[in-house]
């Protein structure tokens, strides 16, 4: 379809007062020969939108350039249908609200932004959603313990078909072994009975849930809404097609044989918390050494947890679990001496009441490091510790049983690191550190990057627990419960419900060709112009989400429904053959080329700012909203992720005479804040390549700067922008200016 | 370092002696930080840490019996009213003291005091027959079958020459208001509040029993106390021993009489007056408004509030048996109180407790501020305003 551009300039919100709108109109109609260009004093109003709608209907306008407020606001107001390309010129926040009114440089800035957007509108197309084949909205739940059962029940209750795969012959997982759960209802003072059989009954009785017990996942291929799952059940095979996956394989207790310093393996009466729970379940709580009743017990918390020699992390549930087990003893006989040795008692929320109750029950709580679990000489055990609260070493009275509250080890962490393909002889070493993928034999994904979900610290397959608690780094696969992070029963059940909802969101969005997360609803996706692919593997290796597989000739095989639309592949591709309909190396490159660069003697430098859409760009808007000012030399282009930056843009900008380039991205490294995990880090790695470009052009490397910025840092932006401008002034103008 | 031994037996013994909530303590340390001992320097301040002391108690571990630690607490209640766990800290202090004192190991300096209370029914070594000496020159009615109120005068105000002024003032005020009241006299015994706080449970029981029998035999129904300590123990500790009466502190009664128009006060006090809330009147009994209302009436030139007032009032250090403690100058809470008053520009520091009077006068003298600040019992100001 012939493209017809309409440009609309809003003069409201102070724009008309600050700018020469007639001159802007002339840029559109004169320089860019836009057939339709109108101004309106209140463009987002019903009347303003009617003006645009009339042009769409009567004039055949199908590409809209809205020169008004930030693209982050009024999104719905300027939506005229998915088939219309919309490009927004941010005259309000980033021009008139952050620069002096009626100023020549402010006007030049506005005109440049209009030029850039008109260029983009000319180059871009409205996205066409990806349509997969044979789409499934069923949800696979891997693991039939408390979390998996809950996820299955919740998904089924919401109307979705579920396939539940459990490795043992019975459903229930660890919860089968459990007598009671910690209190979940007022007054939170007594362990609580939990109806596991009822939950299992709901799942097995549901006609929406197919249950495979005694089974494991042999392999999973495909992508969201098109996952093909092979299930091994007692020697026989089954195949299921599903849309999304909840990983709920749980955790196992830390191997107590490594805890000899706490007496395990040395004294038969030193046992683990799960062994004690099993004793209570069997109704036979006896000393393993002699079968005699237990007339005194000591619990040692953080057994292996929060210990750099063992599990460095907190296992989250063991404090409360031990309180619960202590309560079993006190309920059976209030006179039984019970000791709890702890580092910090983390009885969060209402569990505080249980803790308080046990204090009232006379449990000895000892805060400090256990220094020994020893025979008392009479066949029982005594625990010595450095008690922080009395600042002295102490010795307990004799007890018959010592219980180690061993920590939680995610089942996802039980496996050897998967070796991504090693560089062959002569090939470049991978610059980007590979993700940690542990071959834990849970999902067996047929993904080029490895068979499981990438792990964060300590082997937990979490992605970004603060911003996106349910996300993994594989679209459509949602870890829940203790496989994802240490947590207790009630949190695991909440987690299960959350993951089920994420899985539902995934299948619904994917079925409409929309991105799930974090660019939820985005219809664009990367397309590969394969004729020119050199099989360099950059895209497959750098995609943070493992969206791209590879054929045997190393051709990339993209999976759009796994893709998060970050554009990292586009930034990585040296052949520039990866593009989105509305975002490509060419589109952005042309925007850069349409920035007017004044001659050197005009002394009006130009700075290109590539700003991450997620944090830096909104922060720039915040600067305007607060009416803070910065220099008018900058020209900002929002990028999906700094990782989508292609080096050719830098070369384009510098050879055009632009004086400096500022990259604004999110924090990278261990505490990364990048929405696309590795994008910002990759941009940083590419910075080293930028140096080569600069050397080739014989330019100073200080002309390109990378700043890490989070959205809350907006207050620092004027200083960053003006500081860079003044540093560039010291360097002098880009010598390519007058070419 | 040799390990200390945890002892459930010792812990349970302490609990049985009254430290019933010692196990509830979660060792947050708020109590230690709120304790007035943090406001002064010196050995006791360095050694006494109420959180730590309770920790030893809950572990049944030795170390708390050190006299500097065990008898430091003035039972002011600052910690207890703020404890996030609702620990009855003062009961714990009492229970821990009782576990030592009850075993016959009372500190040497307290023995004569406890002994006097045993022998004479008062801790001030005053002979029984001198208990009514303070009445000289007054016509104090004897309590009889038709008397409405029994006026119980604190031992301190019976025997301490300075303190008798308060008792005498109260009598004048009650008479002016036409209250039907009377005293019993020599047979009365110390209320025992401080004896119990010192851990002498047996002595307390003895004193309380003797009082309860006496009061009940005499047909007492309502009691006016001159001291907030007697008020507190009669109200909170006597009922379960069989002493159930309507107990009122003189400030509350007088305030009621003023409100009812039965007592009129003419502002006579021409100096700026500040009121020091006694712990046992304020934090322990919740009485803050009555003394202030009375003072308002009597103080011609108005009153000033101390910066630490009402619930946040700072202890004089006289409770919990500390009135008998020897404390070096510079470490006395009362000195801080005198400074508080001077900071607010007060010329008179009034209070409504004989122990507070005792401690504040000492502090004022030790700071050599008696020319600038006069310490008086509220009843004295009121009596002068009749
Ligand atoms: S790098 Fe980003 S845009 Fe490219 S395939 Fe991967 S997820 Fe999609
Ligand atoms: S955080 Fe990073 S990766 Fe994320 S969007 Fe920003 S620059 Fe990109
Ligand atoms: S404030 Fe209460 S809970 Fe905290 S340490 Fe003191 S007594 Fe214990
Ligand atoms: S009652 Fe007062 S003196 Fe005693 S520990 Fe508490 S705050 Fe300190």
UniProtKB/TrEMBL annotation, chain A:
One of its GO terms (molecular function) is metal ion binding. Residues 524-553, 554-583 form the 4Fe-4S ferredoxin-type domain. PROSITE patterns: 4FE4S_FER_1 (PS00198), 4FE4S_FER_2 (PS51379). Keywords: 4Fe-4S, FAD, Flavoprotein, Iron, Iron-sulfur, Metal-binding, Oxidoreductase. SUPFAM superfamilies: 4Fe-4S ferredoxins, FAD/NAD(P)-binding domain. Pfam families: Fer4_9, FlpD, NAD_binding_8. Its cofactor is FAD. It comes from the Bacteria. Belongs to the HdrA family. PANTHER family: COB--COM HETERODISULFIDE REDUCTASE IRON-SULFUR SUBUNIT A (PTHR43498:SF1), FERREDOXIN:COB-COM HETERODISULFIDE REDUCTASE SUBUNIT A (PTHR43498). This is Putative adenylylsulfate reductase-associated electron transfer protein QmoB.
From TrEMBL, chain B:
One of its GO terms (cellular component) is plasma membrane. Residues 18-45 form the 4Fe-4S ferredoxin-type domain. Pfam families: CCG (PF02754), Fer4_8 (PF13183). It comes from the Bacteria. Keywords: 4Fe-4S, Iron, Iron-sulfur, Metal-binding, Oxidoreductase. GO terms for molecular function: 4 iron, 4 sulfur cluster binding; metal ion binding; oxidoreductase activity. This is Fe-S oxidoreductase. It comes from Desulfacinum infernum DSM 9756.
């Amino acid at each position: 379809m012939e493209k017809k551009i309409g440009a609309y300039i809003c003069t409201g919100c102070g724009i008309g007062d600050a700018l020469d709108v007639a001159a802007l109109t002339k840029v559109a109609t004169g320089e860019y020969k836009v057939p339709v260009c109108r101004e309106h004093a209140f463009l987002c109003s019903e009347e303003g939108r009617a003006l645009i709608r009339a042009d769409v209907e009567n004039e055949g306008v199908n590409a809209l350039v809205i020169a008004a407020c930030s693209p982050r606001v009024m999104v719905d107001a300027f939506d005229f249908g998915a088939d219309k390309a919309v490009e927004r010129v941010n005259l309000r926040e980033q021009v008139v609200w952050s620069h002096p009114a009626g100023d020549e440089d402010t006007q030049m800035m506005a005109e440049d932004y209009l030029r850039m957007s008109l260029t983009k509108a000319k180059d871009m197309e409205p996205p066409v959603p990806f349509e997969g084949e044979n789409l499934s909205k069923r949800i696979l739940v891997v693991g039939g313990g408390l979390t998996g059962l809950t996820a299955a029940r919740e998904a089924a209750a919401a109307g979705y078909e579920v396939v539940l795969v459990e490795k043992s012959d019975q459903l229930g997982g660890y919860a089968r072994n459990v007598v009671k759960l910690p209190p979940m209802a007022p007054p939170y003072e007594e362990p609580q009975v939990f109806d596991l059989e009822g939950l299992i009954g709901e799942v097995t009785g549901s006609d929406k849930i197919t249950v495979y017990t005694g089974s494991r996942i042999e392999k999973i291929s495909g992508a969201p809404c098109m996952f093909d799952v092979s299930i091994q059940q007692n020697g026989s095979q089954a195949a299921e097609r599903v849309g999304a996956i909840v990983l709920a394989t749980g955790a196992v207790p830390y191997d107590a044989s490594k805890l000899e310093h706490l007496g395990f393996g040395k004294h038969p009466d030193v046992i683990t918390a799960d062994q004690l729970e099993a004793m209570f379940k069997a109704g036979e709580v006896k000393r393993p050494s002699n079968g005699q009743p237990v007339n005194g017990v000591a619990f040692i918390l953080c057994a292996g947890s929060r210990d750099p020699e063992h599990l460095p992390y907190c296992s989250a549930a063991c404090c409360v679990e031990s309180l619960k087990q202590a309560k079993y003893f006190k309920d059976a006989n209030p006179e039984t001496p019970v000791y709890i040795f702890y580092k910090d008692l983390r009885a969060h929320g209402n569990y505080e009441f249980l803790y308080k109750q046990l204090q009232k029950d006379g449990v000895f709580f000892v805060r400090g490091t256990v220094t020994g679990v020893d025979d008392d000489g009479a066949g029982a055990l005594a625990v010595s510790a450095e008690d922080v609260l009395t600042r002295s070493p102490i010795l307990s009275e004799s007890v018959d049983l010592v219980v180690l509250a061993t920590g939680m080890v995610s089942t996802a962490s039980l496996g050897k690191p998967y070796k991504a393909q090693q560089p062959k002889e002569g090939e470049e070493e991978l610059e980007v550190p590979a993700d940690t993928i542990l071959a834990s034999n849970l999902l067996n994904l047929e993904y080029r990057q490895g068979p499981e979900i990438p792990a964060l610290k300590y082997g937990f397959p979490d992605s970004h627990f603060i911003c996106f608690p349910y996300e993994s780094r594989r679209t459509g696969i949602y870890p829940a419960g203790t496989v994802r992070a240490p947590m207790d029963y009630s949190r695991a059940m909440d987690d299960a419900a959350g993951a089920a909802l994420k899985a539902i969101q995934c299948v619904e969005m994917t079925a409409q060709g929309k991105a799930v997360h974090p660019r939820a609803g985005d219809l664009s996706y990367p397309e590969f112009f394969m004729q020119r692919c050199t099989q360099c593997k950059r895209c497959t290796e750098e995609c943070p989400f493992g969206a791209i597989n590879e054929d045997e000739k190393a051709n990339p095989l993209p999976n759009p429904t796994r893709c998060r639309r970050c554009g990292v592949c586009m930034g990585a591709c040296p052949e520039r053959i990866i593009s989105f309909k509305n975002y490509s190396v060419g589109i952005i490159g042309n925007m850069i080329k349409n920035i007017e660069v004044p001659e050197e003697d005009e002394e009006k430098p130009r700075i290109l700012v590539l700003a991450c859409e997620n944090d830096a760009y909104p922060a720039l808007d915040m600067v305007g909203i607060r009416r803070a000012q910065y220099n008018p030399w900058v020209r900002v282009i929002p990028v999906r992720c700094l990782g989508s930056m292609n080096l050719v843009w830098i070369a384009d900008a510098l050879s055009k005479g632009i004086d400096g380039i500022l990259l604004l991205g999110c924090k990278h490294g261990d505490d990364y804040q990048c929405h696309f995990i590795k994008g910002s880090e990759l941009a940083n790695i590419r910075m080293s390549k930028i140096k080569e470009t600069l050397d080739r052009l014989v330019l100073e490397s200080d002309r390109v700067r990378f700043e890490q910025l989070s959205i809350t840092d907006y207050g620092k932006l004027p200083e960053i922008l003006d500081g860079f401008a003044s540093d560039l002034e010291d360097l002098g103008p880009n010598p390519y200016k007058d070419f | 370092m040799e390990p200390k031994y945890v002892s459930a037996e010792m812990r349970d013994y302490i609990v049985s002696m009254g430290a019933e909530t010692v196990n509830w303590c979660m060792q947050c340390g708020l109590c230690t930080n709120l304790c007035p001992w943090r406001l002064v320097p010196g050995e006791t301040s360095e050694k006494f840490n109420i959180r730590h002391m309770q920790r030893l108690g809950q572990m049944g571990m030795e170390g708390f019996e050190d006299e500097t630690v065990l008898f430091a607490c003035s039972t002011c209640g600052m910690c207890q009213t703020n404890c996030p766990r609702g620990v009855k800290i003062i009961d714990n202090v009492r229970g821990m003291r009782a576990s030592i004192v009850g075993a016959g190991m009372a500190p040497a300096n307290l023995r004569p005091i406890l002994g006097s209370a045993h022998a004479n029914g008062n801790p001030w070594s005053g002979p029984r027959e001198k208990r009514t000496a303070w009445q000289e020159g007054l016509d104090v009615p004897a309590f009889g079958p038709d008397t409405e109120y029994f006026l119980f005068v604190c031992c301190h105000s019976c025997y301490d020459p300075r303190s008798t002024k308060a008792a005498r003032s109260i009598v004048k005020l009650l008479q002016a208001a036409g209250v039907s009241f009377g005293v019993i006299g020599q047979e009365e015994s110390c209320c025992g509040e401080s004896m119990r706080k010192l851990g002498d449970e047996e002595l307390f029981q003895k004193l309380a029993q003797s009082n309860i029998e006496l009061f009940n035999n005499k047909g007492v129904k309502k009691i006016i106390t001159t001291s907030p300590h007697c008020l507190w123990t009669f109200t909170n500790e006597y009922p379960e021993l069989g002493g159930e009466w309507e107990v009122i502190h003189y400030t509350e009664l007088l305030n009621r009489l003023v409100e009812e128009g039965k007592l009129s006060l003419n502002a006579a006090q021409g100096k700026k007056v500040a009121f020091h809330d006694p712990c046992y009147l304020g934090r322990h009994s919740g009485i803050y408004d009555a003394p202030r209302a009375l003072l308002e009436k009597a103080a011609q030139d108005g009153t000033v509030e101390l910066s630490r007032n009402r619930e946040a009032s700072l202890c004089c250090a006289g409770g919990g048996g500390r009135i008998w403690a020897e404390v070096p100058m510079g470490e006395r809470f009362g000195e801080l109180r005198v400074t508080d008053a001077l900071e607010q520009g007060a010329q008179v520091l009034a209070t409504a407790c004989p122990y507070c009077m005792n401690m504040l006068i000492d502090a004022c003298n030790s700071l050599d501020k008696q020319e600038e600040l006069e310490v008086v019992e509220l009843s004295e100001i009121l009596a002068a305003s009749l």
